[in-house]
Amino acid sequence: MKAFVNNGTYSVVKCRAMPSFNKSVFAVIADSKEITAVVAENSEIEGEMESGFRIITLDTVLPFDLIGLLDGISKAFAESEIPILVLSSYSTDHILVKENHLEKAVECLRKSGIEI
Length: 116
Fold this sequence. Notes:
Elements: E1 3-5, E2 10-15, E3 25-30, E4 35-40, E5 47-58, H1 69-79, E6 85-88, E7 93-98, H2 102-111
Antiparallel strand pairs: 1-5, 2-4, 2-5, 3-4, 5-7, 6-7
């Protein structure tokens, strides 16, 4: 399996309103309690914000019946004391790590057999 690190640094924002979709918006999750957006850092989106994330994307199409992939990855990160946020899209998963953990996270994935 392969993965890649997306260019740029991102913020996770608890938005006050649904953001307009443009190049700076990576993902939006709207549930019954809040709207969360992952956006390019320095985007002009208002709300409570945590910045300094990098995004690692699994470069493969994952079947819906796949079991245990994220379990193994999250355990490897936990053992290395790397906090993560995971977003799943229709076809693959994206792992958000803080910039200061990126190098260690990449090494962790390589040890898990994922080519970056």
